[in-house]
Amino acid sequence: MTTTNDFAAHLAEDRRLVILRVLLESSAYTANEFLLHSMVERLGHVVSTDRIRTDLSWLQEQELVAVEVVAGVRIAKLQIRGEDVARGRTEVPGVKRPRAG
């Protein structure tokens, strides 16, 4: 794997953790894709809406979030396993492990 691929994988892992942590701090552990996009960018990742949608699909496949489409907008809800990953209780390959503290 090249350095570029390593960096891209690291960014994806961090971005997925950011999404989980945003959901952890959100009311009812839920947020729409546009709010997630805004928060992910505020936390240092410049990404497209398509990238957020792809990450949500990936997180759903890992059973970390549930995604519902309402009026064409994806609504993500943190699942118990996703909370465990966001808090560092469980490790999932493809999601960065949070730092202690």
Radius of gyration: 13 Å
CATH architecture designation: Orthogonal Bundle
CATH superfamily: Winged helix-like DNA-binding domain superfamily/Winged helix DNA-binding domain
Question: Could you give the order of strands across the largest sheet?
Answer: 1-3-2
Descriptive report:
It is a single chain. With 101 residues, the chain is α+β, with helices and mostly antiparallel strands. It has one domain (3-86): Winged helix-like DNA-binding domain superfamily/Winged helix DNA-binding domain (Arc Repressor Mutant, subunit A), CATH 1.10.10.10. Helices cover 52% and strands 15% of the residues. The chain contains 4 helices and 3 strands, in the order H-E-H-H-E-E-H. The protein has helices at residues 3-25, 33-42, 49-61, 80-86; strands at 30-32, 65-70, 73-78. Strands 1-3-2 form a 3-stranded antiparallel β-sheet. It is globular and about 40 Å long. It starts with a helix and ends in a 15-residue tail after the last helix. The mean pLDDT is 95.
Helix-strand blueprint:
Blueprint: H1 3-25, E1 30-32, H2 33-42, H3 49-61, E2 65-70, E3 73-78, H4 80-86
Helix pairs in contact: 1-4, 2-3
Brief summary:
By secondary structure, the chain is an alpha+beta fold.
Kindly list the characteristics that best describe this protein.
alpha+beta, globular, Arc Repressor Mutant, subunit A, 3-stranded antiparallel β-sheet, 101 residues
